[in-house]
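2024-03-11 09:14:02 DEBUG pipeline.ingest accepted 1 chain
2024-03-11 09:14:02 DEBUG pipeline.ingest length=136
2024-03-11 09:14:03 DEBUG pipeline.predict start
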Amino acid sequence: MGDQGLKLALEAANAASPFHRVTGFAVAEADQGSARLHFENRPELLNHAGALHAGVQCAALDTVAGYAAATIAGPVVTLQFTTSFLSSAKGERFEAEGRVVKAGKNQLFVDARLLAVRDGKERLVATATAVLTRVG
């Protein structure tokens, strides 16, 4: 499932981001109005309690929301972003999913989820809603 052309475009954008090289974000899937990324747990991404740092969680959610919006609108920037942390983000790897809820003329409304994968089981650890706008 997914659109290989959209995935390749997002992979190119992802590879151009120095920050994404630090976090290890990788595009897993892309389709019209949705995207999925994944990354491995690494010590430098953790907080003092051994969980994924809240800043990295927000970055993953914002990135996947932007990627989902970009599959419809091309380049976008975030106007508003709200995050809910649901449980401690501990896992071997993480998956972030974004889905466009509504695409207007200039603004796109996106829901995103972050899942921790531990012992082969996914657990929802954070959600976000974002409003993005087309660039240009």
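2024-03-11 09:14:41 DEBUG pipeline.report The mean pLDDT is 96.
2024-03-11 09:14:41 DEBUG pipeline.predict end
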